[in-house]
């Protein structure tokens, strides 16, 4: 397979772009349905704990069931209407049955996933590390959008992501296993300490436990050496975006802003360019 990609230089980028678009379509399902699945599970668990019957039986909901359909008219989406990006353009951004507008967010997520997957191919080539980098990237995209929508970073994604990082680093794909284990522990403990320090000083929650787990997962993939870059980049971007939102949308300081997307963006940057950023920074410090 690797020889075929070497002989046909265009084949790997094309395959990765198509794969990324398809995965982006699936991520739209994950982003929409996973929080609903969690809410349903929480409601069921609460009813069991309180020993009360649910008011009505809920229809089965998972990532495969029910089939994709228009939320307005409930018409099933036909296969040709579910082609990433292309179907949106052919349908003019509207449901093929009732004409209700379809959010442009869906093709944007598909396109971003495709382009990010393509970028990974140029950086890693046809190597085992490429598979890990793709799983890492796709998970971060899903976590980013769920956190934007619900201010929630599901354990269903963050915990498997952490264990996958340790698994890939058994062979040193992105960091040594020692650095990965230390990175996972340090990533969690750093934000855990900041959380409790902030709470002791202000009496308020500064972030959620999902942020601890996400940084632990990033440390498990990239090693503890990447944590300072991730924390610095995410804090800078978060501060800039937070100030911009307060100015543009006149949001008050009391309105919470999800930190997960900034951690995810910083983690992806560190995956590709962390070593370059660190070496240039150390070069500047050494020059001074």
List the main descriptive attributes of the protein structure presented here.
single chain; 288 residues; mainly alpha; globular
Structural class: mainly alpha
Major β-sheet profile: none
The coarse silhouette is: globular
Spatial separation of the terminal alpha carbons = 48 Å
**Helix/strand order, N-terminal first:** HHHHHHHHHH
Radius of gyration: 21 Å
Count of runs of 4 or more consecutive helical residues: 10
Strand residue content? under 5%
Average pLDDT taken over every residue? 87
DSSP helix fraction: 55-70%
Describe this structure in words.
The chain is mainly alpha-helical. It is 69% helix and 0% strand. The chain has ten helices and no strands. Helix 5 (128-150) crosses helix 10 (260-287). The longest helix has 40 residues, at 11-50. The chain is globular, with a radius of gyration of 21 Å.
